Structures are given as structure tokens and as C-alpha cells.
Amino acid sequence: MQASQTQIDAFNSLSTKEISDTQKRIVETFGGDLRLTFTREEIAARVSLKVATVCGRVNELVKAGVLAGRGDTKRPGHRNKEQLIGLPVEVAA
């Protein structure tokens, strides 16, 4: 699946000053594929950044509606669940 026009418009509506290079790298990780979800740690590994940096930028992108929380996952051997992040999926009413 590719990003919907609404998602593309939401991303493009943010001014260049509001979208940092780091945020662009994070969004590009998904390649427009609505099926992909990653944890913040997985995103950090894919874009070669520290998890703390990715967490801040992902939170900004979620707040702007460019990315969305898409469920949780639990890694074997860990107590806490981790949020899965992906491109927002529009649900038909």
C-alpha cells in the first residue's frame, strides 16, 4: 500500500522549517508503505541514530499527524510493551 493523498498533503503542509532532515529520514523509513510498522528502536537502527533522538522526532511527527501509533508489541525476554509506529491509516466510516 502507498501513502494516501491526505497523508502526503499532511506531510507537505508542514513548512520546510518544521520538517528537519532527521524527521524526513524517519518518514522515508516507511517508503510510503502503510503495512509497515516499526518500534522506535527499529527506526533508530534503520536510520543510524540514537533511540533518544528518534523518540523525540517520532513524537513530533505523531503530534503532526504524519505518523501514528499502530499497536503494541512485546519482545521476548522484556516486560514492557513497545509501541509500533507507522503511517496513519484512514479507516472508512
How many discrete structural domains? 1
Write down the overall geometry.
Answer: globular
Helix content: 40-55%
Low-confidence stretches: none
Strand order of the largest sheet: 1-2
CATH topology name, in short, is Arc Repressor Mutant, subunit A
CATH 2nd-level architecture: Orthogonal Bundle
What is the straight-line distance between the termini? 19 Å
The chain-level mean pLDDT equals 84
Q: What portion of residues belong to β-strands? A: 5-15%
Structural class of the helix and strand makeup? alpha+beta
Q: Total number of helical segments?
A: 4
| Biggest sheet overview | 2 strands, antiparallel
The number of strands is 2
Question: What's the Cα radius of gyration?
Answer: 13 Å
Order of helices and strands: HHHHEE
CATH class: Mainly Alpha
**CATH homologous superfamily annotation:** Winged helix-like DNA-binding domain superfamily/Winged helix DNA-binding domain
Features:
4 helices, Arc Repressor Mutant, subunit A, 93 residues, 2 strands, two-stranded antiparallel sheet, alpha+beta
Q: Can you put this structure into words, describing what you see?
A:
Helices cover 41% and strands 14% of the residues. It has 93 residues and is an alpha+beta fold. The protein has a single domain (5-86), classed as Arc Repressor Mutant, subunit A, CATH 1.10.10. Helix 3 (40-47) packs across helix 4. The chain is globular. 17% of the residues are buried. The mean pLDDT is 84.
